[in-house]
Amino acid sequence: MEQRHVPVALPRVLELLTPVLLTPGDQETVMVDATTGLGGHSAAVLQRFPNAQVVGLDRDPQAVAAATERLGGFKDRARVVHARYDQMSEVLDDLHIDRVDAVLFDLGVSSMQIDEPDRGFAYSRTAPLDMRMDTDAELTADEVLNTYSQSDLARVLWEYGEERFARRIAREIVARRPLRTSDDLVAAVEAGVPAAARRKGHPAKRTFQAIRIEVNGELASLAAALPQALRRLRPGGRIVVLSYHSLEDKMVKQALRRGAEHSAPAGLPVIPADSRPWLRLITRGSEVASEQEIAVNPRARSVRIRAAEKLREAS
Ligand SMILES: C[S@@+](CC[C@H](N)C(=O)[O-])C[C@H]1O[C@@H](n2cnc3c(N)ncnc32)[C@H](O)[C@@H]1O
Question: Which of 15, 56, 199, 266 makes an SS bond possible with 36, Cβ 3.0 to 4.6 Å?
Answer without folding.
Answer: 56
